[in-house]
What does this fold into?
Amino acid sequence: MLSLARPHRHDVLIAAIGLFGGLFLWLLGLHTQGDRAFVAPWVSLLPLAVVSGLELVRRTAPQTALVVGTLALVADQFTIGNLATVMMFTDLMYAAVLYGTPSAARRIPVTTILITVAVTIGFLAWFRDPQALLIGVVTGMVSFLPAITGVSVRNHRDAAEAARLRADQTALLAEMDRTQAVTAERARMARELHDMVANHLSAIAIHSTAALSIDEPETSREALGVIRENSVDGLAEMRRLIGLLRAGGAAGEPSASPTLASLDALVEQTRTHAASSGLTCTFEDTRGERGPLPAPVELAAYRIVQESLTNALKHAAPGPVVVRLGRDGPLLTVEVSSVLGDRTGPRAPGSGAGLVGMRERVALLGGAIEAGPAGPGGGPETWRVRAELPAEEGMLKT
It folds into this structure.
């Protein structure tokens, strides 16, 4: 069934040139065969008109055009013939291979070579004259040659399309990798910024609230001292973060990541800030081996303790806050527990981003983390954060 799609402008041009060229040859009396006594000369224009019309659908219905064109070419052999009809038929053969289905593109060249061989053998047997080989040559030029040309062009076109698709896929994958890298870097920066500054800002918020709510000069002076100390420390942390973000950091700018060796100072700092809230902070390091750990593990462990202490400073009820560091075979265990309950006095608001950041850090290393209420066990109910991190380089998630 012929397609009703609008023909391509090139196909219209080919059809027009073929039709008017054939008419011009007919008017000049140039024919491909001798006179046919029983067929009027004008009848050769009918196959010409049919084939030129089929050129309009050479792209949209190539196989149908080839079948009808073949019938028109056979009919042309019973007339005085027209060279334009034969030339347009070769184009239909070429288009059927180039624009047809993949199966047709494979089948048509094989069919045409078989027809060429059959025609050659048939006319040799009929005429018993070597000149009959010329008929086979002409048949091959009209059918097989345009078909094999179409195969070559189609293969080159398909190879170019495949190369373009590969290039598009490579560009898409590169863009996805870039987007994922940017997202991961933004998440890392968010975790670092939160973990670096939240502890200091929480202390500032608590002590500034206390200074505003308690009208005692000594309390206000003590609170302002803590606020100034945390402001200076927070500013130093921000400068360190800027040093990490810059390429190599400027000369003299701190850029080293905190390690487990800094936990004593972190716990002591929190103990000072939490004294007014009734919290007592202690640090227990039960590791048998205290050798160096992979840098990402030390940083993650430090940040988990830092964020847990910040949460205790915000939300924990008066009581002990215990930081425990241990080593269980190839795993480094980090645990921070505090008393779960309400407390009086100033409190800092929380956003929940800290727990998300801790889980992200642990997941990136291939570890495990639990955060939630723990059983009372004969004492007050506690909130516990416990993380297990790989302590060996080969165990890190890649």
